[in-house]
Amino acid sequence: MSMPSISDASKPKILIVDDDPRNLIALERLLQKVDAEVIAANSGNKALAMTLDHDFVLILLDVHMPDIDGYEVAHLLQGEARTSGIPIIFLTAAYTDDHHKLKAYASGAVDYLEKPINDVVLLSKVRVFLELRKKEELQEVMARLAEVNRKLEDEIELRRGSEAAHRQLADTVFTAAREGIMITDAEQRVIAVNPALTAMSGYNSADAVGQLDFIRDCSRHDEDFCAALNTQLLKSDHWQGEIWCRKKCGEPFLAWFSISAIRESGGHVAKYIHVITDITQRKDDELKLWRQANFDPLTGLPNRVLFLELLSNAVADLRREGGSVALMFIDIDRFKLINDSLGHGVGDLLLQEVAIRLKACLRENDVVARLSGDEFTVILKGVHDSAHTIPVAQEIISEMAKPFIINGNEVCVGASIGISLLPQDADSASSLLRNADMAMYSAKESGRSAFAFFARQMNEKVQSVVRLSNDLRYAIDRDELQVYYQPIVDADTLETVAAEALVRWQHPRLGLVSPADFIPIAEDTGFIGPLTEWVVQRACRDAGQWRQKNDRELRVSVNLSNRHRHLENCVSLAAASLQQAGLPREALTFEITESFAMEDVERLQAIRAGGIGLAIDDFGTGYSSLSYLRRLPADVLKIDRSFVSELGTDADATMLVGSIIAIAHGLRMRVVAEGVETREQLAYLQAAGCDLLQGYFFSKPLPNAAFNDFLDRHSVSSEIDGGTVRGYAW
């Protein structure tokens, strides 16, 4: 009888394929952490050649390569019987869309990872495939052992004289196997353990032989588990699964057991062969990967992925058992202001504290998750109606209203909560979430730090906003937008020296739509970028015409939204628009809020250095400190109209306006007072040394043609009499 040759198994081989040597070096260093031999190829052709000389257990394959790409390499490998079973993981930075992913799986890939590669994720996946290969080898060993045993029994019947040869073969298999092997008698007393099991557990033959369950941690498995294991063994002569074990030093580990019964010729069980693999590291990697995919790393709360799964489970339980499920959608009021003014580090610490307070407000079986940013959700199970959610909502609002102490700073926020119930308001998990979100926005509109229940009319309002959003995208092409201009005058001469550009939308069906209605929609949909660029182009064109007609160096200012995230593009477009209109760069000013200015001072300094002006709009309503103000590259401060309106009637506001003017002048900034509406306000601001004035006292915002007429009508007058005020007839 020919006997199979069993030798010391070498390390499993992994082939890495990438035409960039830097990527190959990085992968080789990373894969040093796994017990495998790594072989590199820098092209598809070399990879195919290497598969002729080596047996690989896994291939990490780049998609985009110069000779033949990864898809073709995978296709060729799949076409050969010898290589068709090798798992292939594609790695790519260029092709990340669903079309290419499907193409990869169609060509035989088992996974598709995007560069830059997450080291933890890649190592976890590699270890999983190595473990799978070990299990395949284990099954091969088991099959070979069974075959050897069968042939041994045949040989015993045919040739009694070959027992020594059989014993030598069995000893070779037993000793050389990389997996732990334990042989027990019919009563499960240990007969022998191989060197691999000794290395794995710390128990040698003297410790183990004659013992029952010497390695299993019986405290972790109840009697039902053991009974089911034994029943399966008696029924099929085989069992496999996970068993908790304990090393000689006391350290627990999780092992994969494959147990087979060996029967005598009479049918009685003679012994059991246990093949044992330590899978602790693989399980730890799987758990780590699962936590990364399902939990928010900042707060430790379930993330959107796990939340949606838990919400679907709660809905499924409700349909089986009845009752109601309530969902709360929570948004932290003023969080963006805190984040922008105090920094993202403080914002992160605040979110961690918010998570702690939210959990403290809930029962143990309730679920709180962080969806994104400052948005949290709560699943309340076992509620009977909306009234049962009110105390919870009130407690959350009360806890969120208490000051947070972050790095020694007192930070005050609030919470707006939307509440929806299933089956009362929704028929699915997705509609329940959507309705709670709509209710949250209703709570914000009612004044923040409040809660609101979903109502059917909210959905109608959302549909209206969606329609308006769709119409807005075509407003430029349909010539429905106009730029209005409000004059800015010199406080000493009352001569118009600039104008603020304000966009207006003449909707064909709704008439004039307020900027308060469509600007937030533009910000939320990303249309704010194209809209701003259109306003900049139109404002530069019109300002060029003013200068030619009036022979005056009039400036124009354009507001930039806090949500505008492509500032460099806007500045490049502005430079081109100014050049086309024949204007110098100082003819244009961007107006930005305090929070926007503090968000990226360096980038704004570069813009200011290019000659375009910067004005801090609505100054006094934000949280900027004097140290921040000193760093800002702005050359103009605009005092918010809320302070100007109280001049002469509120002593604090009057003093504050004077202080702002003095501070701005000390920082070599000019000051614009917004919202000037009375002669008294004008007189005070002139006396306080304000540089520029803007408001309805001079003019409301005007279309371009009307603004040109305004410039023609308001010529300098050298006398002050009747209705004239320091040089202009108003």
The helix fraction, in percent, is: 40-55%
Overall average pLDDT: 84
Content-based structural category:
alpha/beta
Q: How many structural domains in the coordinates?
A: 4
Task: Give the number of DSSP strands.
Answer: 29
Which homologous superfamily in CATH is the superfamily of the largest domain? EAL domain
**What is the CA–CA distance across the termini?**
118 Å
Give the strand content. 15-25%
CATH topology of the largest domain: TIM Barrel
Number of helices: 26
Mind describing the biggest β-sheet?
8 strands, mixed, barrel
How would the global form be characterised?
elongated
* CATH second-level architecture of the largest domain: Alpha-Beta Barrel
Radius of gyration: 38 Å
Low-confidence stretches: 1-9, 716-730
The first-level CATH class of the largest domain is given as Alpha Beta
Trace the largest sheet across and list its strands. Answer: 18-19-21-22-23-24-25-26
